[in-house]
Amino acid sequence: MENHGLITHLRHIDVAMPNFAEQRKFYTELWGLTETAGDTGISFLAAEGSPEQYVVRLRQEAHKRTDLVAFGAATAADVDTLAAQLSAQGVRLTSEPRPLDTPGGGYAVRFFDNEGRVVEVSADVTPRQHRKIEAREPIPVRLSHVLMNSPTPEATVAWYIKHLGFRLSDTMCLGSRGEIMWFLRCNTFHHSFGIVRGPHAAFHHASFEMRGIDEFMRGTGRMRRLGIERLWGPGRHRAGDNTFSYFLDQAGNTVEYTTELEVLDEDTWHPHLYDLREPANADQWGTANEMDEFIAAKSHNDVDPGLFVAPPM
Q: Which PANTHER family has this protein been placed in (predicted)?
């Protein structure tokens, strides 16, 4: 049985790292997020254009890890329904549905996916007072999508489709080497989540939506002038039709500025298989530096020591 229609959107990505102060400075002073709450060794960061209380949570920890990825549900009843379905399907919950004590409150369930990542699904979180991002203002509007590396991607994609009701939008392949990237949606955005074939389970990248092309380019230029390590871009992907500029944050995680992610018609959309041996399938514009093994290895990231270990908060 598949669990359809209970996940509504992506909320936030929570990461931990030893160099907390450097990360906090990167995301607030350089990347363009706003700290809305925090304490010693913890920081909740919002995107100015988003009603989400926060889109990134940073936590100080001795070893870098992904604490969790969080999605929204429409109602607390949906959270309860999902929790019951997951339990019946043998999914291991890290916590039963309960009230949240994070900014905005709410009601959530947490569980491990098939590879040990912690996933949270919440409802009734109080919306944050946000604002319209102005023309030429090069800061994120919202968290667009998150991708994860997987050594068993076919099984992981199937897990998210079966247990969380995600739908497949498109797949990327490398000729005879087979499929390497799967884009999954939970609403009409082309993708909110995705899986990348990699040597181990780890965070691949988080992408932040900008107001438009001009703001995207201004943000890209700001990062380059500041000397932030650029991996790939600027360019425009085929799958999702969105722009891309990839950088490394201070912990070696890949982060992306993007804009104009495709909105799909659920009734007519059929998934495509794009071969990355065709350059235009990676970058329609042809403006980005060539993707190579060095860039790919950076986004494979470090082995995540937090698999099947619930974060402390």
A: METHYLMALONYL-COA EPIMERASE, METHYLMALONYL-COA EPIMERASE, MITOCHONDRIAL
